[in-house]
Protein backbone atom coordinates (compact mmCIF):
# COMPACT_ATOMS: atom_id res chain seq x y z
CA UNK A 1 0.00 0.00 0.00
CA UNK A 2 2.80 2.38 0.96
CA UNK A 3 4.63 1.52 -2.25
CA UNK A 4 1.57 2.36 -4.29
CA UNK A 5 1.28 5.76 -2.58
CA UNK A 6 4.95 6.52 -3.25
CA UNK A 7 4.50 5.54 -6.90
CA UNK A 8 1.38 7.72 -7.23
CA UNK A 9 3.21 10.66 -5.68
CA UNK A 10 6.13 10.14 -8.03
CA UNK A 11 3.86 10.07 -11.05
CA UNK A 12 2.13 13.27 -9.94
CA UNK A 13 5.48 14.98 -9.44
CA UNK A 14 6.57 13.90 -12.92
CA UNK A 15 3.31 15.20 -14.38
CA UNK A 16 3.74 18.53 -12.62
CA UNK A 17 7.34 18.75 -13.76
CA UNK A 18 6.40 17.96 -17.36
CA UNK A 19 3.71 20.62 -17.54
CA UNK A 20 6.07 23.63 -17.84
CA UNK A 21 8.03 21.81 -20.54
CA UNK A 22 4.88 21.21 -22.56
CA UNK A 23 3.85 24.83 -22.04
CA UNK A 24 7.28 26.03 -23.19
CA UNK A 25 7.01 23.77 -26.24
CA UNK A 26 3.60 25.18 -27.18
CA UNK A 27 4.81 28.75 -26.66
CA UNK A 28 7.89 28.10 -28.80
CA UNK A 29 5.70 26.56 -31.51
CA UNK A 30 3.51 29.67 -31.63
CA UNK A 31 6.55 31.93 -31.78
CA UNK A 32 8.01 29.80 -34.56
CA UNK A 33 4.83 30.17 -36.63
CA UNK A 34 4.77 33.92 -36.02
CA UNK A 35 8.41 34.26 -37.07
CA UNK A 36 7.72 32.17 -40.19
CA UNK A 37 4.81 34.49 -41.05
CA UNK A 38 7.09 37.52 -40.88
CA UNK A 39 9.70 35.84 -43.07
CA UNK A 40 7.01 34.80 -45.54
CA UNK A 41 5.83 38.40 -45.64
CA UNK A 42 9.27 39.47 -46.83
CA UNK A 43 9.22 36.79 -49.53
CA UNK A 44 5.76 37.88 -50.66
CA UNK A 45 6.82 41.53 -50.82
CA UNK A 46 9.88 40.72 -52.94
CA UNK A 47 7.90 38.44 -55.25
CA UNK A 48 5.24 41.15 -55.66
CA UNK A 49 7.70 43.67 -57.11
CA UNK A 50 6.64 42.54 -60.58
CA UNK A 51 3.42 44.59 -60.15
CA UNK A 52 1.12 41.85 -61.52
CA UNK A 53 2.83 39.04 -59.61
CA UNK A 54 1.17 39.60 -56.23
CA UNK A 55 -1.48 36.82 -56.60
CA UNK A 56 1.24 34.26 -57.31
CA UNK A 57 3.31 35.64 -54.43
CA UNK A 58 0.46 35.23 -51.94
CA UNK A 59 -0.35 31.77 -53.31
CA UNK A 60 3.24 30.62 -52.84
CA UNK A 61 3.39 32.22 -49.39
CA UNK A 62 0.15 30.58 -48.27
CA UNK A 63 1.28 27.17 -49.48
CA UNK A 64 4.56 27.60 -47.63
CA UNK A 65 2.71 28.41 -44.40
CA UNK A 66 0.45 25.39 -44.86
CA UNK A 67 3.52 23.17 -45.21
CA UNK A 68 5.14 24.76 -42.16
CA UNK A 69 2.13 24.30 -39.89
CA UNK A 70 1.78 20.70 -41.12
CA UNK A 71 5.48 20.10 -40.29
CA UNK A 72 6.23 19.14 -43.90
CA UNK A 73 9.35 21.26 -44.22
CA UNK A 74 10.03 23.45 -47.22
CA UNK A 75 11.86 26.73 -47.56
CA UNK A 76 12.93 29.38 -50.02
CA UNK A 77 13.45 27.01 -52.94
CA UNK A 78 9.98 25.55 -52.60
CA UNK A 79 8.53 29.05 -52.36
CA UNK A 80 10.25 30.07 -55.60
CA UNK A 81 9.08 26.90 -57.36
CA UNK A 82 5.49 27.49 -56.25
CA UNK A 83 5.71 31.15 -57.25
CA UNK A 84 6.81 30.27 -60.76
CA UNK A 85 4.01 27.74 -61.13
CA UNK A 86 1.34 30.08 -59.74
CA UNK A 87 2.57 32.88 -62.01
CA UNK A 88 1.46 31.05 -65.15
CA UNK A 89 -2.12 32.15 -64.72
CA UNK A 90 -1.67 34.40 -61.74
CA UNK A 91 -0.29 37.35 -63.70
CA UNK A 92 -3.65 37.69 -65.49
CA UNK A 93 -5.37 37.80 -62.11
CA UNK A 94 -2.91 40.48 -61.03
CA UNK A 95 -3.60 42.51 -64.18
CA UNK A 96 -7.35 42.25 -63.61
CA UNK A 97 -6.86 43.38 -60.03
CA UNK A 98 -5.08 46.55 -61.08
CA UNK A 99 -7.83 47.21 -63.65
CA UNK A 100 -10.39 46.97 -60.82
CA UNK A 101 -8.36 49.41 -58.73
CA UNK A 102 -8.26 51.86 -61.65
CA UNK A 103 -12.03 51.58 -62.11
CA UNK A 104 -12.67 52.26 -58.42
CA UNK A 105 -10.25 55.21 -58.50
CA UNK A 106 -12.30 56.71 -61.36
CA UNK A 107 -15.48 56.20 -59.31
CA UNK A 108 -13.97 57.91 -56.29
CA UNK A 109 -12.82 60.84 -58.40
CA UNK A 110 -16.33 61.14 -59.82
CA UNK A 111 -17.73 61.20 -56.29
CA UNK A 112 -15.31 63.98 -55.31
CA UNK A 113 -16.24 65.97 -58.40
CA UNK A 114 -19.83 66.17 -57.21
CA UNK A 115 -21.36 64.23 -60.09
CA UNK A 116 -24.99 63.21 -59.27
CA UNK A 117 -24.97 59.74 -57.80
CA UNK A 118 -21.18 59.83 -57.55
CA UNK A 119 -20.92 59.18 -53.78
CA UNK A 120 -23.13 56.09 -54.04
CA UNK A 121 -21.22 54.75 -57.02
CA UNK A 122 -17.92 55.42 -55.25
CA UNK A 123 -19.04 53.64 -52.08
CA UNK A 124 -20.29 50.64 -54.03
CA UNK A 125 -17.02 50.52 -55.95
CA UNK A 126 -14.93 50.54 -52.77
CA UNK A 127 -17.02 47.76 -51.19
CA UNK A 128 -16.79 45.71 -54.37
CA UNK A 129 -13.01 46.19 -54.48
CA UNK A 130 -12.65 45.00 -50.87
CA UNK A 131 -14.74 41.95 -51.74
CA UNK A 132 -12.51 41.21 -54.75
CA UNK A 133 -9.36 41.52 -52.62
CA UNK A 134 -10.76 39.14 -50.02
CA UNK A 135 -11.77 36.73 -52.78
CA UNK A 136 -8.28 36.83 -54.24
CA UNK A 137 -6.68 36.15 -50.86
CA UNK A 138 -9.03 33.28 -50.11
CA UNK A 139 -8.30 31.80 -53.53
CA UNK A 140 -4.56 32.14 -52.98
CA UNK A 141 -4.87 30.50 -49.55
CA UNK A 142 -6.01 27.19 -51.11
CA UNK A 143 -3.90 27.31 -54.28
CA UNK A 144 -2.22 24.11 -55.42
CA UNK A 145 0.13 23.60 -58.38
CA UNK A 146 -2.53 21.78 -60.40
CA UNK A 147 -5.31 24.30 -59.68
CA UNK A 148 -6.74 26.78 -62.19
CA UNK A 149 -7.08 30.37 -61.04
CA UNK A 150 -10.47 30.79 -62.69
CA UNK A 151 -11.90 27.87 -60.69
CA UNK A 152 -10.22 29.00 -57.48
CA UNK A 153 -11.63 32.52 -57.79
CA UNK A 154 -15.16 31.33 -58.56
CA UNK A 155 -15.17 29.06 -55.52
CA UNK A 156 -13.53 31.70 -53.31
CA UNK A 157 -16.17 34.27 -54.30
CA UNK A 158 -18.90 31.95 -53.05
CA UNK A 159 -17.05 31.37 -49.78
CA UNK A 160 -16.55 35.11 -49.38
CA UNK A 161 -20.30 35.61 -49.52
CA UNK A 162 -21.33 32.50 -47.56
CA UNK A 163 -18.73 33.02 -44.83
CA UNK A 164 -18.94 36.73 -43.91
CA UNK A 165 -17.26 36.18 -40.54
CA UNK A 166 -14.20 34.66 -42.20
CA UNK A 167 -14.15 37.40 -44.82
CA UNK A 168 -14.28 40.01 -42.07
CA UNK A 169 -11.22 38.40 -40.44
CA UNK A 170 -9.31 38.72 -43.72
CA UNK A 171 -10.35 42.38 -43.93
CA UNK A 172 -8.99 42.78 -40.39
CA UNK A 173 -5.64 41.44 -41.57
CA UNK A 174 -5.61 43.94 -44.42
CA UNK A 175 -6.39 46.70 -41.92
CA UNK A 176 -3.36 45.68 -39.87
CA UNK A 177 -1.17 46.02 -42.96
CA UNK A 178 -2.63 49.45 -43.71
CA UNK A 179 -2.08 50.64 -40.14
CA UNK A 180 1.47 49.27 -40.13
CA UNK A 181 2.21 51.10 -43.38
CA UNK A 182 0.72 54.30 -41.96
CA UNK A 183 2.84 54.00 -38.82
CA UNK A 184 6.02 52.94 -40.61
CA UNK A 185 6.10 51.75 -44.21
CA UNK A 186 8.77 49.02 -43.68
CA UNK A 187 6.55 47.36 -41.07
CA UNK A 188 3.98 46.54 -43.73
CA UNK A 189 6.43 44.22 -45.50
CA UNK A 190 6.67 41.40 -42.92
CA UNK A 191 3.03 41.91 -41.90
CA UNK A 192 2.00 40.70 -45.38
CA UNK A 193 2.81 37.22 -44.12
CA UNK A 194 0.22 37.53 -41.37
CA UNK A 195 -2.41 38.39 -44.00
CA UNK A 196 -1.54 35.18 -45.86
CA UNK A 197 -1.69 33.28 -42.56
CA UNK A 198 -5.08 34.82 -41.76
CA UNK A 199 -6.45 33.72 -45.13
CA UNK A 200 -5.10 30.20 -44.60
CA UNK A 201 -6.66 30.06 -41.12
CA UNK A 202 -9.99 31.33 -42.42
CA UNK A 203 -10.07 28.68 -45.15
CA UNK A 204 -9.14 25.97 -42.65
CA UNK A 205 -11.90 27.18 -40.34
CA UNK A 206 -14.42 27.11 -43.19
CA UNK A 207 -13.36 23.60 -44.20
CA UNK A 208 -13.89 22.20 -40.69
CA UNK A 209 -17.12 23.92 -39.72
Helix proportion: over 70%
Q: Rounded to an integer, what's the Rg over CA atoms? A: 22 Å
The total of beta strands comes to: 0
What would the principal axes of the Cα set say about the shape?
globular
Distance between the termini: 49 Å
Structural class: mainly alpha
- Succession of helices and strands: HHHHHHH
Mean pLDDT: 83
Low-confidence stretches: 1-18
Residue share in β-strands: under 5%
Q: Count the DSSP helices.
A: 7
Major beta-sheet overview = none
Assembly type of the chains comes to single chain
Tell me about this structure:
This protein is mainly alpha-helical and 209 residues long. 85% of the residues lie in helices and 0% in strands. The protein is built from seven helices and no strands. The longest helix has 46 residues, at 2-47. The protein starts with a helix and ends with a helix.
How would you summarize this macromolecular structure in one to three sentences?
The chain is mainly alpha-helical and 209 residues long.
Supply the key terms.
209 residues; mainly alpha; 85% helix; disordered N terminus
